[in-house]
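=== RUN LOG ===
request id: a7f3
mode: sequence -> structure
chains: 1
length: 574
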Amino acid sequence: MQATDWLQAAALLIVLGVACPLLGRYIAAVFADGDPAERRAPGDRVFGPIERLVYRVAGVDPTREQRWNIYAVSVLAFSTVSILAVYVLQRIQGSLPLNPADLRGVTPGIAWNTAVSFVTNTNWQAYAGESTMSHLTQMAALAVQNFVSAAVGLAVAVALIRGLVRQRRGTIGNFWVDLTRGVTRILLPISFVAALVLAGAGVVQNFSGGTTVRTLEGASQVIPGGPIASQEAIKEVGTNGGGFLNANSIHPFENPNGLTNFLQIVLLLLIPFALAFAFGRMAKDRKQGYVVAATMFVLLFGLAANNVYQETHGNSRLTEVGVAQTATAENPGGNFEGKDVRIGSASCGEFSAATTNTSTGAVNCQHDSMTPLGGGGALFGMMLGEISPGGVGSGLYGMLVFVLMAVFLAGLMVGRTPEYLGKRIQATEIKLVVLYILFVPLVVLGFGAVSVVIGSGLEGQLNSGAHGLSEILYAFTSAGNNNGSAFGGLTVTNDWYTTTLGLCMLIGRFFLIVPALAIAGSLVRKRRVPVTSGTFPTNTPLFAGLLTVTVLIVVGLTYFPMLALGPIVEHLAL
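=== RESULT ===
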């Protein structure tokens, strides 16, 4: 690593260390508990009238709270309508305005896959954005879902916190209020400022269909235009990942320079880490938030260090034949395949860890061109369930599920009923925890196994052997964990992949949201029990260590055979 790479890493830690606790405090205030009719939150004077108008139009009573099952039905109903709306808009975009490139309607398979992808916060793209989607579709369908799908995850996380904190209650909040507040008071303000900064730094923001220019070689080239900066901002802030352009954040119109690259990494990690601090404040025990944040950081740091090390040290085969891979003033150094000179190998390692440990999927380098263990690190980050720190909302409620698992294991070791935040964790909650943990591996490993033995699964595969297996495994892991990044050596536009990946996205989103809300509904009815000398403390470094080990053991036992046959075998074969 060069000095600038170390400086960027240090600056990233400082910025997040300052911003996340402050934002966490604000988020906790926005979703503060209390009587809904009397509750006050920051920004009421500005956002209150807008929200009241939304409630009036939608017919929502903001003072009426919901039981967990009604909350879940609201989430599912809103998401179902969203999928249908995004699908229809894609299909008829050829007859709608703001289509300067005169693009036709999207084919049914791609429209279905994309609608499911953006509504589930996956943002998997089996298409080239600039040649497939009109400006209207990008803004009214995809960018809108970037906001509301992130807000859905945020709402579910807040509902689970209420289930843990409240006692002897039947309700966990109002989904429509949580959704609206998440968009208006958190996602929109941050995205607005970020879009201005990105546009000022050179990210394209216009309604042009493209500009034809003459290149230095004398050829003609069309430079794409469109509302890119505004979508780029929420793509990162909402941990979405769907790029306006096919090359995503490798493209200079989405990520022009080192400043925008640094800002995008910050935006990826900002809200997920801030939610850990918000949890501590809402639980009225900040140390609980510190434990969650520390566990998230340790997992992220370990994978980021691995990815950076692997990419900056390059390919050992090239070293054997005398190719210099050491960074110098003339040589960027490391494994530079699939990377841009504006970004470099070290920043690729940082960005790849940030984007796969959150449910983002944006890329500033080609993950398929990373070294076997570098790409394997990105793959393992998704296999963790994207809880380090995970997506907006989904990272926190996923980590809290693992917290309950760790508490259960601790209870077994000390021989008493496990407790968390004064609530006894009993059979009902543990059964739901197990369901939560098993759903995604079942579809990822199941569809992955079928894909390596049927013709339609191997149809779009450009590589065989260990790397080919990694490509298929990466695709289903990305879809099942609502990430959206991909190994580019696998073409996934046939019916098998558009259908199965769409099912993975739906299961990875809603088959986890429902158990998480059911856990909230079970816990909210319980009373707190007093702390005794036998209570296992969950706000200490010891518990943070136990939580980290629990995550690694559960995920490792689930996925290690596939990792061994894919990235590890490929590395050993170098």
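=== NOTES ===
The first strand starts at residue 211 and ends at 214.
The beta strands are 211-214, 220-223, 419-420, 423-424.
=== END ===
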